[in-house]
Design brief:
45% helix; 44 residues; mainly alpha
Length: 44
């Protein structure tokens, strides 16, 4: 789902705890955020 087309990053981040995730979906989201920030996930 292309969430970025109708939710800001801040709104998406705020809603994370409210949504059900597939087992690796939330982990994948955190890895994407880390990649965009130039860091690693999980944090060292």
């Amino acid at each position: 789902m292309a969430w970025h087309t109708f939710l800001t990053d801040a709104e998406l981040e705020r809603r994370l705890p409210d949504w059900a995730w597939v087992p690796d979906g939330l982990e994948t989201y955190h890895r994407l955020r880390a990649l965009r920030a130039g860091t690693t996930w999980p944090p060292a």
